[in-house]
Specification:
The protein has ten helices and eleven strands. With 295 residues, it is an alpha+beta fold. The chain folds into three domains: 92 residues, Winged helix-like DNA-binding domain superfamily/Winged helix DNA-binding domain (Arc Repressor Mutant, subunit A, Orthogonal Bundle), CATH 1.10.10.10; 83 residues, SH3 type barrels (Roll), CATH 2.30.30; 80 residues, no CATH class. The protein has a five-stranded antiparallel sheet with strand order 6-5-4-3-7, covered by helices on one side. A four-stranded mixed sheet has the order 9-8-11-10. The protein has a two-stranded antiparallel sheet with strand order 1-2. It is globular, with a radius of gyration of 25 Å. The chain starts with a helix and ends in a 9-residue tail after the last helix.
């Protein structure tokens, strides 16, 4: 194997192709010269050079197979360049990215179809989003007009001091100090009708937002109305032990996690266990920070 110094000397573009070689070989079972040439728009000769370089760096990782005209991973395969953890790889496959940080390709890079749910677009205009992000980045105050389910008029201006964006997996929010209510709240991006960055420094920040800064342990367990076999399957599904799924969550985000995981938040666990397969074990500890999510 090449020394750490020689690996560090490899140019970024070449390193990205070596990452792709590892990912393709490990997850699809074969990497060919044509895969590299097609994905990166280089010549077959250049692709061959990349494979040769990789073989010099990691001589025990790949084995050439004539029947597939390419290289397959050996039993001793151990990645050097790529992050092959499922969380990273599935994201890249879903976005059709040849490597982390790359632009999406038109044709399936890995030859695998990934379908995503056709969810509604719940985002503001780029001009509104820019004002919000600039306020966060530069720690400035922000004036917005906002559609609220509470019934407050959308023509009433609010002065906020935003500090973070939140992606719940279903929609985007931003966390901000609200000068009207003297507290920190979440605001849905798609409900912002207008936003203007103000030339006034924010007086608050994330460090003053207790619910944002405090991390609590959310403990979940399979619904008691599920069978023993179903409970065991869920424990395997969540890679949990002793019937406990434990997550470290910001207090401000607990309600969104409960929603995202379809947790039965009723006191008597009366929801359909086939649709709401988990319940909260430490309800008394968690409910004060996400009362709106409990039934």
């Amino acid at each position: 194997m090449a020394t750490g110094k020689s690996i560090a000397d490899i140019k970024q573009a070449t390193r990205q192709r070596l990452e792709y070689i590892e990912l393709m070989a490990f997850y699809t079972g074969v990497i060919t010269r044509s895969d590299i040439a097609r994905t990166f728009g280089i010549s077959d000769a250049a692709a061959t050079k990349d494979l040769k370089l990789y073989g010099q760096i990691a001589p025990d990782n790949l084995i050439y197979k004539h029947n597939v005209f390419g290289f397959v991973p050996s039993e001793q395969f151990s990645e050097i360049f790529a992050d092959l953890q499922p969380a990273a790889v599935l994201t890249m496959i879903a976005a059709n990215l040849p490597m982390a940080g790359a632009a999406a390709e038109d044709n399936p890079v890995y030859g695998i179809t990934v379908e995503t749910l056709p969810l509604p677009n719940r985002l503001p205009s780029k001009h509104i989003l820019a004002q919000i992000i600039r306020a966060i980045k530069n720690r400035k105050k922000l004036r917005i007009k906002y559609l609220s389910l509470s019934g407050r008029g959308s023509n009433e201006a609010r002065i906020l001091e935003p500090h973070s964006l939140i992606n719940t997996g279903l929609r985007w929010h931003f966390r901000a100090y609200n000068e009207d209510s003297y507290d920190f709240r979440d605001f849905v991006l798609s409900r912002v009708l207008d936003a203007k960055l103000l030339d006034e420094d924010a007086e608050s920040s994330a460090q003053y937002d207790d619910d944002w800064m405090e991390i609590v342990s959310l403990k979940l367990t399979p619904h008691p109305k599920l069978s023993d076999d179903q409970r065991l399957i869920l424990m395997t599904d969540y890679s949990a032990e002793n019937d406990v799924i434990e997550l470290q969550v910001r207090r401000a985000l607990i309600g969104y996690v409960l929603q995202r995981l379809s947790v039965d938040t009723t006191a008597d666990h009366s929801m359909n266990p086939n649709a709401y397969q988990l319940i909260v074990m430490n309800r008394d500890e968690i409910e004060p920070f996400a009362g709106w999510a409990f039934l």
